[in-house]
Amino acid sequence: QVQLVESGGGLVQAGGSLRLSCGASGRTFSTSHLGWFRQAPGKERDFVAGIRWSDGSTNYADFVKGRFTISRDTAKNTVYLQMNSLKPEDTAVYYCAASVFTPPQYTHWGQGTQVTVSS
Length: 119
Known about the structure:
Layout: E1 2-7, E2 10-13, E3 18-26, E4 33-39, E5 46-52, E6 58-60, E7 68-73, E8 78-83, E9 92-99, E10 106-109, E11 113-118
Parallel strand pairs: 2-11
Antiparallel strand pairs: 1-3, 3-8, 4-5, 4-9, 5-6, 7-8, 9-10, 9-11
């Protein structure tokens, strides 16, 4: 099992920035990908960004390209999501997820962290 703990959410004004962190523990050696997802009230959970643990290659949802950056620190078993130019529509609970499969199938989830962007 892989355990994930997110932190860094909060309230920010539109145009501001936040950095989310996700620490992984447990069977981290089996992790192939880590990703960020988000879920707004009344909406489905959407993929935001993903990173392949071995080489750091990344992919993003179109709605965050150019604003969000996913990165990792392999020594700390931590993945980050730097969010810039935040918009009110970015308001959601953000979840960290891990996959032990390639291509990624996210089966391990954190508890989520709330991000609220005020206009």
